[in-house]
Amino acid sequence: MIEVRNLVKLYGKHKAVDHLNFRIEKGHIYGLLGPNGAGKSTTMNIMTGYLGATEGTVLIQGHDILKEPESAKKCIGYLPEQPPVYMEMMVLEYLRFVAEMKKIPKKERKDQIDEVIAMAGLGEVENRLIQNLSKGYRQRVGLAQAILGFPEIIILDEPTVGLDPKQIIEIRELIRRLARKHTIILSSHILAEVREVCDYIMIISDGKLVAGDTPENLEKGLRGSRHIELQAKAPVLNVQEILDELPGIRNVEYKKESNLLTTARIETRDARDIREQIFTAFARKNIPLVTLKLSQTTLEEVFLELTQGKQVIPLTAEKEMEVETDGGGI
Predict the structure, then answer these.
(1) Hey, how many other C-beta atoms are within 10 angstroms of the C-beta on 154?
(2) What angle (nearest 5°) sits at the alpha carbon of residue 38, between those of residues 36 and 43?
(3) Taking phi first (over 0 means left), then psi (-120 to 50 degrees means alpha), and beta for anything else, what does residue 210 get?
(4) Phi, psi for 47 (deg, rounded to 5)
(5) Contact 298/192 with Cβ under 8 angstroms?
(6) Would you state the pLDDT for residue 304?
(7) Which of 109, 3, 16 is nearest to 62 (CA)?
(8) Do 265 and 253 contact (CB within 8 A), yes or no?
(9) E-strand spans in 47-206?
(10) CA-wise closest residue to 330 among 185, 224, 221
(11) Buried/exposed code over 29-60 (b: 16+ C-beta within 10 A; e: otherwise)
């Protein structure tokens, strides 16, 4: 559906996008995740034809965005980070203008406009000037224009910026509904938002693609992603003696909380859950356990590991989303 090949964007000597390669398949919600300045918006602007690439190619349904811009853009609805609205127009007037620009047949315009107004929750403000709307409502107007015409691909750059918590939940639900018939690509630096709505996540750092997979597989991808944590009322040496006798432990990190309280982070072979054996071993020595829990690496930890440590998490072979990086690794 979308193929990005060897994409590079230079601003002077600064490389905002650095040899990106990925493929987007139909029927999923994809998230572009990265810190501010990672290259997310630049990538989206190139994909939609707003910017030209220094190198590389973007194909939309087989159409080159630079060589066949009209054919490619017919397949895309786009909400940039700053909604492309005309402040002096009323909401309904603006959507009629967008419908005409998108060449939606006249007999279909009213029904489509009414539908996107309802979907975006704009019924109460459709006859108000856009300049008099709150930032959240302007964002909704921008979303409505992206949906209008119901293109196969909808690209959203920071779609919940400026919205209150209730509106954010409503927009997330709207994105899920749209995904039933459309492929959605959204960018964000808000981890919870991406984790909540996306089927697949691509993490970008310094213009490079450092990981791509489902949220669950990304969380499992780091070494030691599943571990056991315990707190025991005993000195470090006593805790260490007990754990040294247990089979199946790969590594243990100890932390002395006080003279009589020790924390241990246990990594087991094959990520096995040996909490029962640990509990029994400590009970035999009459050493009380304050806590004993199984922990999983979170998306936040993965994000920090990848964007600060530049580690690369490989994709699983069976995934529909195909992602490559220059020089391998994903």
Answers:
(1) 24
(2) 115
(3) alpha
(4) -60, -30
(5) no
(6) 72
(7) 3
(8) yes
(9) 55-60, 63-64, 76-79, 153-157, 183-188, 200-205
(10) 221
(11) bbbbbbbeebbbbbbbbbbbbebebeebebbb
Please report which helix (H) or strand (E) contains residue 87, including its range: none
**Residue 222 pLDDT:** 54
**Count of C-beta atoms within a 10 Å radius of residue 318:** 5
Angle at 158 between CA 61 and CA 296, to 5 degrees: 95
For residues 172 and 56, what is the distance between their CA atoms, to the nearest angstrom? 32
Give pLDDT tens digits for 243-261. Answer: 999 998 989 999 998 878 9
Q: What is the pTM of this model?
A: 0.72
The span from the CA of 112 to the CA of 314, in Å, is 42
Q: Which residue has the tokens 């094959």?
A: 270
> How many whole angstroms separate alpha carbon 200 and alpha carbon 183?
12
pLDDT value at 272 more than 70? yes
CA distance 75 to 67: 15
The HSE-up count of residue 90 (CA atoms within 13 Å, CB side) is 8
Q: What sign does the dihedral 116-120-124-129 (CA atoms) show?
A: negative
**Cα atoms in the 13 Å half-sphere on the side-chain side of 317:** 0
58-91 residue pLDDT tens: 999 989 998 898 899 899 999 988 888 999 999 9
Ramachandran category for residue 56: left, alpha or beta (phi over 0 → left; psi -120 to 50 → alpha): left
C-alpha to C-alpha distance for 305 and 118, rounded to whole angstroms: 41
